[in-house]
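Step 1: inspect the first sequence and its tokens.
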Amino acid sequence: MRPAAAFGLVPALAGFLVLLGVVSGIDLVNGAVTVDRVVSHGIIVAGFVLLIAVHRQHRENSGPSPAAHDPADDDQTRTSGQHALARPQPRTRRTFRTLFGRDAA
């Protein structure tokens, strides 16, 4: 639902995967676990790969949509002879108050 925010989990999940890999490798070499048990952790690796894929797709698609294009801006740049730089709109943070109103508490 929020791929930009979900990408913040990458460092923590990457650290966890490294630690899990080291511990699982040691346990596997010592015979404390079976190969099936170590392979069962693959779902976490798959989740990490999907998280990276979602972030890359979000980054590629985060440009302005064609519907957001204002033809009036084209007229101004043609008459002035200068190229106007698009200013990004400030993003509003979603908080409890903005989602549910100020009286909900």
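Step 2: inspect the second sequence and its tokens, then contrast the two.
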Amino acid sequence: MKQRTILAVVVVALLTLTGCSSQGGQAPGSGTSADSSSGVTKVSIGGVVTTSTVPISLGQSEGIFKKHGLDVTMEPTQNFAAAVPSLMNGKLDFAIAAVPPFIIALQQRMPLVAVAGTSATVADSTQEGNQVVVRRGSGIKTLAELEGKKVATNQVGSGPYVGVLATYLRSGGAPDGIEWVSMPMNEQVAGLESGSIDAAVLAEPYTGMALADGNVPLASAYRDPQHPILNAGDPYVVVLTSKSYAEKNPKIVAAMRDALDEANAFAADHHDKVVDVLVSETGMDAKVAATIKIPGFVGKLTGAELQRLADAMLEVGLLKKKFDGAAAVWQPAG
């Protein structure tokens, strides 16, 4: 597929950039510093500020990180690819990534390890923010009926793209039967309205916007009831670090893992505070923030959830060999 060729080029570029950037920088882990006056260790996390970073914000504001001996700073990055060089040369201690790019990076032999999850699926698949939405009046009732249709995604190779394509194939859809179109989500909403696309793979707040315009939800990107890709509570975004940093700083990584587990649990139990963070840190309109479908928040990783998504990536051709989910999750030595 043309899309797979494009994705391969992106991965090669990412690896080249990482190799060049890591030769002249600081030693991995040198971005960490201890503040003896406060008894906490300063660490940085690189990532794009989205719903997935809400547990980090709440971990700061609610004193959860401090409780675990950490002073955490979010460093805005354009995307995971942009964060990797800084992660590898020690300018960042941790980074946030959707699971598919993380898996692809591991298969390209990048020395990374997942520490904890953030955004996760929820029990009721109709309440997932990642949805396939079809144009009103399209007559499309199942994912298999997307064959021969024009479907938009913000990025070929993204988690929702993988979920939708794998579910479509499991539903009996013909390989290469979908005409994929890459476009930003705001343009997808407009495309449904104009009829230039038949369906869109959306996340909040764009899912809500499309449905408010009268378009129709077709299926969860990850959890179609007949052919689920992920289980309820499976994280599809992770916080990761370099293997070198983890080897040199196991106590800090353990503290981060435990703090994120607690921060995610707090976010899951306080949706009002999640909405407040979305308004204050992303600039989202308060009325929109109050209506979006909030994801699950799960910090604990076993590797099984990574395995399920990797298996789907193998099905759709984004991986060439088997993946070991358990080996991708950090565990303390001994």
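Step 3: confirm your contrast with the notes below.
The longest strand covers residues 40-47. DSSP finds 13 helices and 13 strands in the chain.
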